[in-house]
């Protein structure tokens, strides 16, 4: 009788272990579930899934882990996904003298009421475009001549 119980126990163990999907089958299912979330890779070993990669936010990171809930054969999930910085690196005004000059000129031109003039600055060269009154031209060019200004390209149309 003891021998029969032992034999039935072994057969049940073999039967239940045969029902567990292979790592290859789990990997295929995991890849299908994660295909909607770009930037993620998964590795499966003995039913344990390890997620890696980079996503844009915490929502995507959590969604990847949630997508694997209920996948047959997954015994555990390790989420090593990295989240990109929410704030992109910003160029400070101090890093670029052209930005400083453009900001200075934009402020001066707005204060003077010259909204019809666009200003571009490249390597210290100021280009003025738009329309202006002929009697304002001298004042406009004078305002554009800052210590950082290397050259003024006047493309203004006078009225």
TrEMBL record:
Signal peptide feature range: none
A Pfam family recorded for this sequence: BON
Boundaries of every BON domain copy: 16-85
Entries under InterPro entries matching the protein: BON_dom (IPR007055)
The protein's name: BON domain-containing protein
Organism: Chitinophaga nivalis
